[in-house]
Design a protein that fits this description.
The chain is of the alpha+beta class. It contains eleven helices and 22 strands.
Length: about 525
Amino acid sequence: MKITKSLSFLLISSKALLTDAVPVLFKVLAINGTPSININYQQYEMEAVPDSYPLYQKMLDINEFPVNYNYILDYGNGHAEQEEFTRQRSENEEPLNEFFGRSITIKKHPLLPNAYEPFKYFKQSRLYNDNFVASIFVKCNEDEIKKMNSDSEAKIKIKAEVVYASPYVVKNFNNATFSIAGQSTRGVPKLSYKIKNLKDEKGKELYGRTSIKLRAEHMDPTLLREKLYGDILNTLGVPAAQNTYARLYINKRPIGLFNLSDHIKNNHYLKNTFNNGKKYDESKPNPIFKCDSGSGVYSDLGYYGDDGSNKQYSVYSYSGKDKTTKTKKEHIEAHLIPLLKEIDDYAKGKGNDLSIDVDSYLKYMAMEFLGGAIDNFWNSPSNYFLFKDLTKNKWYFHDADFHYSFGVSWGQDKMLKTPLAEYPPVEDDGKHYKERPLLDALRSHPEIEAKFKDIFARLLKTSYHPNAIFPRLESITTMIREDAHWDVALEKENSNADHGKNMFLLSMILKMILLVNNLKVLIKVTQSDTL
């Protein structure tokens, strides 16, 4: 009788245990091999999710929480790899797409306080949730990739299948194009890339974007400067390209960690930045110009006569969609020269109004000064866009490319110690001239100069304050650290690189120390009376 009661008790207890078990879904992104989930030294092989490469999943009954686990990747032929850390899941926790070998799936960062309200025409895209590192997988013809990488200066575009994966989704784009991006960076070992035509079979875009850039940040192995610069711009309420992080694989081959950023000339970016996401009238294309420098000529916004073929205008490139006007000269004469003439008249006191958005322009200039942006408008007029919204009859200055900031490259001492009244610093050979027609004309008005200095004051009290910057910088560093170390160890794709070869020989730790020290000194200097 006692034995019968004991057996009954055991059966009831076992039934209770089974009843209390909770089905839990585990998901992992694994590029090669077959993953298994390892719980209490018991392995369970995972199953590929249809049409969602490289996502695998496994549903298991779990009766004790939190559950500790990790993943094992079987490459075949007796070769397997196990994660060196332990993951933990609480009951009712959302199942996320975890990435094999990366311990952090999501990390929420401290936000920078706004110095101003957001730009009123801007619509944010979920693509730029920066609480995780996304993953991009490109599948294309390997011979074409080798040809493109061996001739990085050529404008080669490759048809590609692209998968975008985040902790939440896996999206497929089977008719994309893949190409090398950038200008001077085409000669460095780690190339930057551009992906276009990001539309799925139903015509849906990648969170409102059909074109993105993957910026290699070769000049900054910390991969932090451009991200931080963009974060601060967002607090200024200016039309700014967004950016976050993504790891890139091509044909299952690891390429590296990249800054995933907007393609500024893309129509989807323009409508989401300047028109609250609403389509513009395609019959009246808005003009946009890419503004660069070269051969001693700078895009300084100076007026040099009405002839669009003047050498001084050679650094402006029309990037709009207007097909009725054929030549670069015609585009410059039709759109750009009237703006430059307007600026010239304003500087000479012949006009009181400007069709360019002065507020955002001044905010960009303040950030260039504080951020030590050596390769941008104020210091070396280039690397920006001019966009005109025809419906508003308004031009917008749009800065771009900030990897040469916060102490990268030449003249850090000069950048730090040159006061606002004497900026930009002049090189020893005297090549850096100081005339900036639009900025000089604006600052000649006492009320605008006072407004300009108020931008500095607000920045230094809000988003450009060490109490705001350093916690966020530390949090982002923690999130990307594993991928950044992985990136440095990878062989670079550009076998014919002709400069920047020693950049990755520098210690990541040393570069981090330099970045932090530069920021500390920069904040100290700009908060002093040198303004």
